[in-house]
Fold this protein.
Amino acid sequence: MADIETFKQENRIFNPPADFVRDAAISGMDNYKAMCAAAERDYEGFWANLARENISWQKPFTKVLDESQAPFYKWFDDGQLNVSYNCLERNLQNGNAEKTAIIFEADDGTVTRVSYQQLHDKVCQVANGLKSLGIRKGDRVVIYMPMSVEGIAAMQACARIGATHSVVFGGFSAKSLQERIIDAGAVAVITADEQVRGGKQLPLKAIVDEALAMGGCDSIRNIIVYRRTGGNINMQQGRDLWLQDVTAGQAATCEPEWVNAEHPLFILYTSGSTGKPKGVQHSSGGYLLWAALTMKWTFDIKPTDVFWCTADIGWVTGHTYIAYGPLAVGATQIVFEGVPTYPHAGRFWDMIARHKATIFYTAPTAIRSLIKASEADAKVHPKNFDLSSLRLLGSVGEPINPEAWMWYYRNVGNEKCPIADTFWQTETGGHMITPLPGATPMVPGSCTLPLPGIQAAVVDETGNELPNGQGGILVVKRPWPSMIRTIWGDPERFKKSYFPEELGGKMYLAGDGAVRNEQTGYFTITGRIDDVLNVSGHRMGTMEIESALVANPLVAEAAVVGKPDETTGEAICAFVVLKRARPNGDEAKQIAKELRDWVAKEIGPIAKPKEIRFGDNLPKTRSGKIMRRLLRVLAKGEQITQDVSTLENPAILEQLKQAQ
Ligand code: PRX
């Protein structure tokens, strides 16, 4: 959780540069305020105009917002469109056929450029290939692919034929993949033989095989494999097909499947406060509108820009700001296969210089680790690279501490690039609270103000709005076009998680705490208020990790909490009770390693606890509830000052104090 004190003391203000303001799509605070006022005056009219301007509709919508089944809101529902048509044909018609859509840089530095025409043709071939396998509108397709043009084409091809994709991050384990395949009821998996990261070849197809071998994936008919490395894999006859074979001889045109605006474009699984990941379901029309609008508002995208979002397509950032947003506005973007530290930690800066990137969007964790790397090795410091092409920077996924913000501003942006600290979530579909680069004065560590039309507020537990300066719960008071539509297969959980009765059932509960500055009204996110951790910008449920741990035959009980970490923001700390006596010394180290590997197998390497402490028991109340807030204090290495009189077993705290 971010340290609120740091932000309270933060009073430096950085104004956007004058030339940026002059040329920006939203220019100056008066312009921003006028847009907010327009949305306030005529909420539906505001969104309707934007939806007409930014999207090509096959059949125009007549209704804007349907609240009749709230909180299952519908936007533009009787309108028909196709998302892939909007991302491809719309650009061909705008004279961008020969414009570079994607500059793909492979792990080994090989660069491939793909024009809008070429991308269109590729997507159509994949779409026709999927159709030839009997995949139809409404079917679910799991995509488990590396960062690649093919990964993006697979997503776009699904959109083109009206199939709902569910991308699973390539770092998730077979078990996680299997659970998602089953929950989505997917008919096919699109994957690659292997992925390449940091010079290493890592399996993908073998993990899909393992997931299917676990059973329960009966809905799967085909596995389609993109040949990335040529590595040795098994192909099961009748089930497994090479993507190259599926697309061979397919036409380079494919009539798009026109779908209603509410048709589910994708499901993306994310962690919640209970054990099971939630399938966040997004729409077609409202989502696409948001992807396009935020490219214009937040990133001020211009035809000459070279945009680079360093996220992976396995996360929502890679959906909205790689697979859809940049294409929806006809931008040129960089897509990167590798990792920021290979072959050296100056890779990002080197790529910005070589491709003349103008907009760079990354996560605070990456910035913090590159700060460390450049302190250790001056050669990889950004000052050694020509970053003069940059005009705008962005940050996403976790709070950015003011120190990292300042370093980014000075050393990467040369004090001339605004920084968009974009607060949003898988559920929100796109940016919600962020500075506008040509309007909003910036304060390091604050995501500043909501986008026009977004009615964000800070409330108490009963939904009453709190005065500025008082910390509380972050909510959004009105529905917006790109909001989550439901949790796939679990509408009740959707209602309970996001529109709880305690808040009146009408406010969207983000799950984060926030505080607004007394003078400026600026928002600062203070961290999750539920049992969700943010490790390196990756969202992890503590319950998910606990379930994984207790599934190990050695473990009787486990409690997982976050502890602040300089580089990853938060780190996972697990308190574990074994079924046998508490281990010590080397044995404890050995078992801790076993358990970490176990979690990597159950969920994925990103969920490995950084620290594991063993105890004879966990601190519990007399009614048997684990007192996690005490564990959080212990994990931080701080003294317990809270009242522990309700504890059944106060002596256990002493034992759990020690890191093994
Ligand atoms: O806690 C907030 C944090 O990341 C959570 C959302 O995670 P996820 O759904 O994985 O989406 C990440 C990419 C949008 C939020 O609930 N978060 C995200 N952006 C910020 C942030 N916290 C502070 N500042 C941000 N800019």
Observations:
- Residues 1-7 have pLDDT under 50 and may be disordered.
